């Protein structure tokens, strides 16, 4: 369900490839994907999307239909289009594992391949990595804001397209969400799927209590009832009256969901009603316009809420929907390269990120260094592909999810409290020296 057409690219990528072909520019190039600066209110980001990137690189080719379209378009020389039929990814990929916490100026992915190959993958690579990283980073904040609570992705209907909704479910689960309402995400990624009912189901019945009873008999497993269509507390009383009858038939009400009003106040009132009916095991789930700040507020208030359904703010990353990220040439034909555009200067050469930890196991700081520098610390980029083939099996989603949980647990306390204080990222002496040497050479001094 994830589209991998090589036509999912910008026109200028093929325009450059046609020029490279004309002048024989096919030496080895290295590009790195990184983020220049953090969005407001963000103190960290979480890497995601690597699995889809690897699948894209492995299957990279033009279909006969796409080649026919390119010929008919008249945009490129026929001989160039003919050559595209043989194009495959034959290069190397190094990357931070999915679920890794990272910071600005740190390469998250490095592609090393013949220049045309490394150039062509840019658009889809950024598209895949950027989106899931945005969502995983947003979801991670929500996980930190609601410790110990179940978080469910409700966001497909507000996502910017079907692929976005599917990949958002994946990124959220990677970051620590417990499940999704999106059926396709269960089929494709085996993410636990969770669902209740809509208000329209209750409205379609003349009697709210009958609506609850009918739903319970047809969908008895993991039964959750939406109780705020008309009056939240009245709905809770209907559940309190219905639950004992259902229990005698072996049907257990597992949870009730609230979707409107003062969620904290309603949750307290509903908890009292349920407890008085000896329904202490019935959980309270809430939804309705929630973001990380709302989650933090509700949890800090002590409201008796066991889980949250989060939609719009998750799948659109409403407070920070885009990253200032880039995929830039770092080395070509054995020589380091450096972009000097105002406000967009890059650090040259191929790099590694080394992480250091404090005595308590939390992240103390990172160092970005050249590959040929000697450095201590945990190296964060690992070989993923060599000569166009995987080095081994990628971690399964469950394993990446466990890595993400470990990464979040290692954040310094201020970042776990969602404060925007960053972790120190130091540029190594060797990298600074290389940049200075290149600057002097460019100036002719």
Automatic annotation (TrEMBL):
Name the pathway it acts in.
Cofactor biosynthesis; NAD(+) biosynthesis; nicotinate D-ribonucleotide from nicotinate: step 1/1
**What InterPro entries does the record tag this protein with?**
Aldolase_TIM, N/Namide_PRibTrfase, NAPRTase_N, Nic_PRibTrfase-Fam, Nic_PRibTrfase_pncB, Nicotinate_pribotase-like_C
Cross-referenced Pfam families:
NAPRTase, NAPRTase_N
Q: Entry's SUPFAM superfamilies?
A: Nicotinate/Quinolinate PRTase C-terminal domain-like, Nicotinate/Quinolinate PRTase N-terminal domain-like
The yes or no answer to whether the keyword DNA repair is present is: no
Nicotinate/nicotinamide phosphoribosyltransferase domain sequence ranges: 150-331
Q: After translation, how is this protein modified? A: Transiently phosphorylated on a His residue during the reaction cycle. Phosphorylation strongly increases the affinity for substrates and increases the rate of nicotinate D-ribonucleotide production. Dephosphorylation regenerates the low-affinity form of the enzyme, leading to product release.
Q: Which Gene3D superfamilies match?
A: Aldolase class I (3.20.20.70), nicotinate phosphoribosyltransferase (3.20.140.10)
Q: Write down the chemical reaction(s) this protein catalyses.
A: 5-phospho-alpha-D-ribose 1-diphosphate + nicotinate + ATP + H2O = nicotinate beta-D-ribonucleotide + ADP + phosphate + diphosphate
The GO terms this record gives for MF are:
glycosyltransferase activity; nicotinate phosphoribosyltransferase activity
Q: Name one GO biological process term.
A: NAD+ biosynthetic process via the salvage pathway
KW Glycosyltransferase (keyword) present: yes
Enzyme type, top EC level: ligase
Any one GO CC term of this protein is: cytosol
* Database matches in CDD domains: NAPRTase_A
Q: Where is the Nicotinate phosphoribosyltransferase N-terminal domain?
A: 7-129
The record's keywords, sorted A to Z, are:
Glycosyltransferase, Ligase, Phosphoprotein, Pyridine nucleotide biosynthesis, Transferase
EC number(s) from the headed UniProt entry? 6.3.4.21
Please give the family membership noted in the entry: Belongs to the NAPRTase family.
Q: What does it do? A: Catalyzes the first step in the biosynthesis of NAD from nicotinic acid, the ATP-dependent synthesis of beta-nicotinate D-ribonucleotide from nicotinate and 5-phospho-D-ribose 1-phosphate.
This one is known as Nicotinate phosphoribosyltransferase
């Amino acid at each position: 369900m994830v589209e991998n057409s090589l036509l999912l690219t910008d026109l200028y990528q093929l325009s450059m490839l046609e020029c490279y072909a004309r002048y024989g520019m096919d030496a080895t190039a290295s590009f790195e994907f990184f983020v220049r600066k953090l969005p407001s209110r963000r103190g960290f980001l979480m890497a995601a999307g690597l699995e889809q990137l690897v699948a894209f690189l492995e299957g990279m080719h033009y279909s006969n239909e796409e080649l026919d379209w390119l010929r008919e378009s008249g945009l490129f020389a026929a001989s160039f289009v003919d050559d595209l039929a043989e194009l495959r990814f034959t290069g190397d990929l190094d990357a931070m594992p999915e679920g890794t916490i990272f910071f600005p100026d740190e390469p998250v992915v490095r592609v090393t391949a013949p220049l045309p190959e490394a150039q062509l993958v840019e658009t889809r690579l950024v598209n895949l990595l950027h989106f899931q990283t945005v969502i995983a980073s947003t979801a991670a904040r929500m996980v930190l804001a609601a410790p110990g609570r179940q978080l469910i992705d409700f966001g497909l209907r507000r996502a910017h397209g079907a692929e976005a909704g599917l990949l958002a479910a994946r990124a959220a689960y990677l970051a620590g969400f417990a499940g999704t309402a999106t059926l396709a995400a269960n089929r494709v990624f085996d993410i636990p799927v969770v669902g209740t009912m809509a208000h329209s189901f209750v409205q379609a019945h003349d009697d709210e209590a009958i609506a609850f009873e009918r739903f319970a008999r047809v969908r008895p497993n993991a039964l959750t009832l939406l109780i705020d269509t008309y009056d939240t507390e009245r709905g809770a009383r209907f559940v309190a009256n219905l639950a004992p009858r259902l229990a005698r038939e072996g049907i257990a009400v597992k949870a009730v969901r609230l979707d409107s009003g003062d969620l904290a106040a309603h949750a307290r009132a509903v908890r009292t009603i349920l407890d008085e009916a000896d329904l202490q095991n019935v959980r309270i789930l809430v939804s309705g316009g929630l973001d990380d700040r709302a989650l933090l507020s509700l949890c800090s208030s002590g409201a008796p809420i066991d889980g949250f359904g989060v939609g719009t703010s998750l799948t659109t990353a409403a407070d920070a929907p885009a990253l200032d990220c880039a995929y830039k040439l770092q080395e070509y034909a054995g020589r380091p390269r450096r972009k000097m555009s105002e406000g967009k200067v890059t650090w040259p050469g191929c790099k590694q990120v080394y992480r250091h930890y404090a005595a308590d196991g939390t992240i103390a700081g990172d160092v970005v260094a050249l590959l040929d520098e000697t450095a201590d610390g945990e190296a964060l980029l690992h070989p993923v592909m060599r000569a166009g083939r995987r080095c081994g099996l990628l971690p399964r989603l469950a394993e990446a999810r466990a890595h993400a949980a470990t990464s979040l647990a290692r954040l310094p306390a201020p970042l776990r409290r969602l404060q925007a204080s960053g972790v120190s990222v130091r540029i190594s002496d060797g990298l600074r020296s290389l940049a200075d040497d290149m600057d002097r050479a460019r100036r002719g001094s």
